[in-house]
Amino acid sequence: MRIFSILAAVAVVALLALFILDRPRLLALVGQAEGSSDVAETSADAPSDEAPANLVKVVVQRSVAQKVDTAVALRGQTEAARTVDVRAETSAIVVSEPLRKGTRVAAGQPMCTLDEGTRGTALAQAQAQLDEARARVPEAEARLDQSRAQLEEARINLNASSKLSEGGFASTTRVANTEAALATAQAGVESARAGLQAAQSGIQSAQAAVATAEKEIERLVIKAPFAGLLESDTAELGSLLQPGSLCATIIQLDPIKLVAFVPETEVARVAPGAMAAARLVSGSGALTGGPEARSNAVQGAVTFLSSSADETTRTFRVEIEVPNGDNRIRDGQTAEIAISAEGAFAHLLPQSALTLNDEGTLGVRTIDDDAIVEFYPVALMRDTAEGVWLTGLPDTSDVIVVGQEFVIAGVQVAPTYRELSQ
Which of 82, 237, 321, 359 makes the best surface tag, with the fewest CB within 10 Å? Predict the structure, then answer.
């Protein structure tokens, strides 16, 4: 005990001397002792934090599905609503000045005028024959009335002769004569009736001749069947046109059609009446989204969807009608077409979130409520500057956007959530 007291006294004296002579070193020794105590406490607590420290840290983005309008993208071309080769129906020489191609013509506007020749005389002759046929009708009607009167007279004479013969006042010869007169009168009635029918038929024949002559004269002026533009010059002055000879070619560009062919995998998404938009591939800015591209954008509606596929390409023809009042859109221009289809729910995610599983399937990795990794195959709906629209995920998903390449399905991770704007 005495030795312990001596040692304690020596230690106290040493500490006092150290405190007085070298105070900074004493404070450092005290700090090291406290640090050793903290390390001991940390070591005691280490087993509880060991598991989280070994988890892979990932960045997660919570995504909620949004309804996205989808469209069937096609490439097609413009087509005139109507294109007609206007041809002559009679033979004659052109007596009108030609109209030049590119000229706008109205419906019914004369394009080629032909020489009348003797067609006016033929019409006058047909008209005279019609008048003559009409004049024969009253004469035939009068002859029929006369025949009917003679028939009635013959019947009266026969009746009288028969009664006189019964009383013995007339001979059988007289009765026979009156019977013969009755038969003659009946034949006269039939003849007069036939003459009237012939006169009426003559009127119809003369009317047909007049109509033919008038139609022949009408064919001398070849008119535009509809409003449009001339694609060729009209027949030159002095040229001879035969039946079937070309007067001019006319096209109608308002409205104009957009024609494309839908693959059989997409045809179920297209329906007549669906709205469609198109961008004409013309000009340097048509595909860049600039002002020129906007000027080349058109809208319309689907007016026709073929019910049978092309035997070679297995595609279906679709037509879209677009207004073109100023004829700005020409026939045969290439167009990029988007036909609206039923919308679908999709997630907008960074393109970098896409990954492949061991089987090579494209998808994304997500985590559940327990931070366990899951893999979902996805389908790419649309690629935009903001990201990719994907389908195949639950309506609300926690998608790993950073670190998905270092984890696999079934493992637990340490997630850090980030906002959509980051």
Answer: 359
Cβ pair 330, 254 in contact under 8 A = no
Helices 172-218 and 119-167, packing angle to 10 deg: 170
Amino acid identity for residue 245 in this structure? S
Query: Can you tell me the distance from the alpha carbon of 422 to that of 419, in angstroms, rounded to the nearest whole number?
Result: 6
Bridge partners of 222, per DSSP, are 112
Report pTM. 0.57
Whole-number pLDDT of residue 134: 87
Residue ranges of the chain whose pLDDT lies below 70: 1-53, 165, 167-170, 175, 283-295, 420-422
Residues of the chain above pLDDT 90, percent = 55
* Domains of the chain and CATH, by start: 57-68+345-418 (2.40.420.20), 72-78+253-342 (2.40.30.170), 82-115+222-251 (2.40.50.100), 119-218 (1.10.287.620)
